[in-house]
């Protein structure tokens, strides 16, 4: 989870909340994202190379599914038809995920690790634009519940098994960042996306999230 945004935080220099969409759009995006993460993690667990890895990744998938249910329930308070509210973003999300697809198990686990952490940090900051009570609840839902540590341990065991995986995982992690940032951009309000001035306020937000992403890879001895 991101540290509190003090005066030294890049994102503190902009009003991140001005970038946020409506509560309904925010919750629809978060719901779809968690469903996608749960599906990806379940696939990784089923294809795991060991029973220990399978057990751990299934645990992370369960956390993602819990988040999905929580966001789904919140969304139902803001829209009359949840499936209809989820439909517009599904195609865009599917297009992003298609670019992340790999036939290599360890690359899919790495995608889960990077995507979970990066989007958690971004959605956490973006929630500042929601009504206070909802923002607090959303940040409780996206808070790390140990799933990040679990995925880090799985990748750590992979790296320890054969040093040759280190460069491959590091390269894959770097490859993901641009597409994950595009995925995050889709979560912004339509007004922000239509503006010619989107990049200036968004840059310090991504700077902060990228710094956390770098720390996430550093813990595994990987190069961001």
Shape: globular
From the 3D structure, determine the CATH topology: Ferritin
Reading off the top of the CATH hierarchy, the class is best stated as Mainly Alpha
**In terms of quaternary structure, what is this?**
single chain
Distance between termini?
18 Å
Q: Using only CA atoms, what is the Rg?
A: 17 Å
The ordered H/E elements are HHHHHHHHH
Helix/strand-derived category reads: mainly alpha
Q: How much helical structure, as a percent, in the residues?
A: over 70%
Describe what this molecule looks like in 3D.
The chain has 224 residues and is an all-alpha fold. It has one domain (11-218): Ferritin. Helix content is 73%, strand content 0%. It contains 9 helices and no strands. Helix 4 runs antiparallel to helix 6 and helix 4 packs across helix 9. The longest helix has 25 residues, at 51-75. It is globular and about 50 Å long. The relative contact order is 0.17.
């Amino acid at each position: 989870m991101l540290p509190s945004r003090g005066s030294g935080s890049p994102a503190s220099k902009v009003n991140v909340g001005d970038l946020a969409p409506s509560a309904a759009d925010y919750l629809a995006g978060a719901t779809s994202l968690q469903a996608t993460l749960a599906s990806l993690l379940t696939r990784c667990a089923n294809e795991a190379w060991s029973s220990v890895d399978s057990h751990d990744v299934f645990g992370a998938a369960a956390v993602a599914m819990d988040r999905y249910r929580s966001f789904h329930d919140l969304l139902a308070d803001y829209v009359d038809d949840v499936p209809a509210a989820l439909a517009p973003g599904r195609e865009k999300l599917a297009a992003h995920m298609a670019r992340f697809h790999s036939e290599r198990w360890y690359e899919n686990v790495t995608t889960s690790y990077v995507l979970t952490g990066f989007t958690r940090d971004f959605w956490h900051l973006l929630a500042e634009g929601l009504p206070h009570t909802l923002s607090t609840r959303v940040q409780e839902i996206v808070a790390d519940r140990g799933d990040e540590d679990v995925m880090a341990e799985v990748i750590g065991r992979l790296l320890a098994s054969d040093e040759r995986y280190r460069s491959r995982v590091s390269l894959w992690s770097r490859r993901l960042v641009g597409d994950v940032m595009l995925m995050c951009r889709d979560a912004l309000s339509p007004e922000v996306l239509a503006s010619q001035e989107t990049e200036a306020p968004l840059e310090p937000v991504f700077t902060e999230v990228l710094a956390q992403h770098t720390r996430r890879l550093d813990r595994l001895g990987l190069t961001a």
